Amino acid sequence: MTAPEDSKLKRREVLAGILAARGDALAVSSLGTSTYDLFAVSPAPENAYLWNAMGLTASVGLGLAIAQPDRRILVIAGDGDVMMGIGSLSVIAAQAPENLSILVIDNEGFEETGGQAGLSAFRADIAEIARGSGFRETMVARDEKDAARLADFLWRRTGPVLAVAKVGASSDGPVYPCMDGPELVRIFRAAVLGDASP
Amino acid sequence: MSQAAAQTDDGWSRQVHALAGEAGISLVATVPDAGLTQLLRLCSDDDRFRVVTLSTEEEGVGMAYGAWLGGTRSLLCLQSSGAGNCINALALPAFTRSPCLMLVTMRGQEGEGNPAQFPMGRAVRAVFEAMGVVVMEAMTKEEVPVLFGQAADLAFGEGKACAVLVAQQVIGVKDFAK
Fold this sequence. Notes:
Shape of chain B: globular
Oligomer: heterodimer
Order of helices and strands of chain B: HHEHEHEHHEHEHEH
CATH superfamily of chain A: Thiamin diphosphate (ThDP)-binding fold, Pyr/PP domains
Helix content of chain A: 25-40%
Strand content of chain B: 15-25%
Strand content of chain A: 15-25%
């Protein structure tokens, strides 16, 4: 189960491979490393970077998917964020938004807070939980060969779908997108709605 | 008034349903409560609304933000117990100055038959206000639509989190003897 650290998938490489094919998709990232990674590999006004509210990334994605049914929504969330909001997978499965894809960046720990082990390091299998919550399609990427299938899986399958990328610790430092909350909303809404009003 | 009687006393529910439609709300997220039965049924039966059942109330705070980013207005309907579940989630609308409109049916007030409901019932206002939520409490059924209209204006007009509390005396008291 535990591969040597240097043989594990690198989170920004995985994410860059997926987001290169994003087209006009909207992305939502969980606080911490997922937000830094999204900003590092695919900075765009169509990114909703979260800075707080751990556990709610998938729920934010669901609200956005319902509001923007003609665009693909990619939720990029850490394993800790997904575990904290695990019930939201059942909510999403019940609503069945065809345009919603979830990528779980699973480093099996809490990297932001010092690398403590997370629940997916023990017995929890997030892809299996998603299946039990009602997701019809899930996949787990453990190596480069699996990772090469992620973009196709996340962008082309009918949602909701969930993929888990088992990654190593981040070797890249944090890069920070805008930390002004109202400004983040203004930028995103202006890009998506053509509406700069509050 | 019994809970069963409350469910047939739908005056305020009809008014809130109508006002929600007028306010352009199209998404209703909820962990249900008996006092919300009429309102949720009216919204479920109305094609203008999509009603989403949550596993826990804070998901509705996240959904409200995502929906707002995508140009959709939402309403979160919850029982007062769920206010406590929303605490950290409310940092999201507070930080981003985004709307988060909530309708809360109260437990743990005058006439409550389950003493276990008192601690959270008493804490709702303090918890919400600590997280920057504007709290308005309707003590009569006539006040519910008035305050709901004000809360919707404030939420969507100024990007505030607003909660309308519907007092237990309005919705009736659950009778545990039955």
